[in-house]
């Protein structure tokens, strides 16, 4: 509709004569994990802090958080899996382990793992964590998340799979594998895309008799497969690993490796009907043949932590359904295993009758000191440390692998 407006002098001017003066276009903000990502032009060479690849381009090469200065590609910003450290009133991550930074001299060009720019200078160019070797500027230390030992990068992307172990009525053991999709894969072709497909093996398999593969999805970095496989297991396969690798198909020449992960078949068997499912990082060929790194949200890690805190206490308390007149009997404490022999902690067994002519046990002699208690509860290693016992890795129950650092796995126990 063509509206008209009356001027102060009484004249009439059409609506299209009014102009918006001083209006400014606001930059689009992308909210991910409380980060405020905004497209930005970088004046100096910059590397993505998520996939560690160079950020190419002449215009706005990538995204940067306006709060914590974290930089990443446009294709990577949706996969950042930690909360912004500068946002207020946020729920802290379930995994909190601060870094131990110290000033460091670098002998080769090094880039900051937070803002992606060069650590400039002749000596003492930046700060490095003593444990996980994270390199940052001094000004970026306050913005680095407290995830020392937890590798939040995804250099090769991620894959979503669902694996279960099943025993058929005829006694045949099979693996039911569902390959769902992949995301944020490496670009392998000149057009910046790839032609991915998935190969499946039971390793070690020198003759590749167990090889299976999906169809090729053309020109994409986020393929959706939705293909299901039933893998029949042979005798001795429980000691092997299920390898899932992503490859790039090429019309001319050899196909290119993109990433892989693997699962111990015994681990899948112990999981039962629940199986193994979810997102997993794609690793290099050497590491992926022996490891799998799940990608967990903070809520999932928090649920595991709550379950862990609630589990031992619930096991120690008597059942609420038990009759008040008959209290539940306390579970016996497990014995410590030393030299392949268990030290009993219960009442002493009855002694056999003495042989004729043998000295009775009640004969006078020096009094022996009372036996020292050797029982340690496996659910509470603090009791062992309080009693002076050395706590070992066998005293813990491991629930989940949270990540893999330069010094090993980070596990929830």
Class per helix and strand makeup: mainly beta
Radius of gyration: 31 Å
Strand content: 25-35%
The rough form would be described as globular
What's the number of extended β-strand segments? 21
Work out the helix count: 4
Tell me the span between the first and last alpha carbons: 68 Å
Low-confidence sequence ranges? 313-346, 358-366, 371-379
Helical amount: under 10%
Kindly report the spatial arrangement of strands forming the biggest sheet. Answer: 3-4-5-6
Mean pLDDT: 79
Q: What order do the helices and strands follow?
A: EEEEEEEEEEEEEEEEHEHHEEHEE
The largest sheet is: 4 strands, antiparallel
How are the SSEs ordered, and which strands pair?
Blueprint (H helix, E strand, L loop, with lengths): L3 E3 L5 E3 L15 E3 L2 E6 L21 E4 L5 E2 L28 E4 L21 E4 L5 E2 L21 E10 L5 E11 L12 E8 L8 E2 L10 E9 L8 E8 L7 E9 H7 L4 E6 L3 H4 L9 H19 L20 E2 L2 E2 L38 H6 L13 E6 L2 E5 L1
Antiparallel strand pairs: 1-2, 3-4, 4-5, 5-6, 7-8, 8-9, 10-11, 10-17, 11-14, 12-13, 12-15, 15-16, 18-19, 20-21
Give a quick set of tags describing it:
413 residues, mainly beta, four-stranded antiparallel β-sheet
Describe the protein.
The protein is mainly β and 413 residues long. It is 9% helix and 26% strand. The chain has 4 helices and 21 strands. The protein has helices spanning 265-271, 285-288, 298-316, 381-386, and strands at 4-6, 12-14, 30-32, 35-40, 62-65, 71-72, 101-104, 126-129, 135-136, 158-167, 173-183, 196-203, 212-213, 224-232, 241-248, 256-264, 276-281, 337-338, 341-342, 400-405, 408-412. The strands form 7 sheets. Strands 3-4-5-6 form a 4-stranded antiparallel beta sheet, with no helix packed on it. A 4-stranded antiparallel beta sheet has the order 14-11-10-17. Strand 10 and strand 11 (173-183) form a beta hairpin. The longest helix is centred in the C-terminal third of the chain and has 19 residues, at 298-316. The radius of gyration is 31 Å and the shape is globular.
């Amino acid at each position: 509709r063509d509206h008209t407006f009356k001027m102060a002098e009484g004249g009439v001017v059409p609506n299209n004569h009014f102009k918006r003066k001083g209006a400014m276009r606001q930059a689009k903000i992308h909210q991910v994990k409380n980060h405020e990502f905004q497209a930005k032009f970088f004046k100096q060479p910059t590397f993505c802090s998520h996939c560690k690849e160079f950020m190419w381009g002449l215009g706005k090469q990538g995204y940067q958080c306006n709060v914590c200065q974290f930089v990443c590609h446009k294709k990577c910003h949706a996969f950042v899996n930690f909360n912004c450290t500068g946002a207020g009133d946020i729920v802290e991550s379930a995994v909190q382990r601060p870094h131990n930074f110290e000033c460091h001299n670098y002998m080769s060009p090094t880039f900051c793992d937070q803002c992606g720019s060069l650590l400039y200078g002749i000596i003492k160019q930046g700060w490095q964590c003593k444990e996980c070797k994270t390199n940052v500027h001094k000004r970026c230390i306050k913005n680095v998340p407290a995830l020392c030992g937890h590798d939040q990068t995804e250099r090769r992307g991620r894959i979503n799979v669902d694996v279960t172990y099943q025993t058929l009525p005829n006694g045949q053991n099979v693996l039911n594998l569902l390959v769902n999709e992949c995301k944020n894969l490496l670009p392998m072709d000149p057009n910046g895309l790839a032609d991915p497909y998935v190969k499946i093996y039971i390793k070690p398999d020198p003759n590749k008799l167990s090889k299976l593969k999906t169809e090729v999805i053309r020109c994409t970095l986020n393929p959706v497969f939705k293909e299901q496989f039933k893998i029949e297991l042979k005798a001795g396969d429980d000691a092997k690993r299920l390898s899932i690798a992503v490859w790039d198909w090429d019309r001319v020449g050899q196909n290119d490796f993109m990433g892989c992960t693997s699962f111990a078949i015994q681990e899948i068997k112990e999981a039962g009907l629940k199986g193994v499912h979810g997102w997993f990082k794609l690793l290099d060929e050497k590491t992926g043949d022996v490891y799998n790194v799940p990608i967990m949200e903070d809520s999932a890690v928090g649920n595991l932590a709550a379950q862990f805190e609630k589990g031992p206490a619930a096991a120690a308390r008597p059942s609420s359904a038990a009759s008040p007149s008959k209290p539940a009997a306390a579970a016996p404490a497990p014995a410590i295993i030393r030299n392949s022999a268990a030290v009993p902690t219960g009442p002493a067994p009855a002694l056999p009758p003495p042989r004729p002519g043998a000295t009775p046990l009640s004969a006078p002699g020096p009094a022996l000191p009372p036996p020292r208690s050797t029982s340690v509860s496996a659910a509470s290693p603090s009791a062992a440390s309080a009693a002076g016992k050395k706590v070992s890795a066998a005293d813990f129950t491991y629930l989940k692998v949270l990540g893999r650092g330069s010094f090993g796995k980070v596990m929830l126990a």
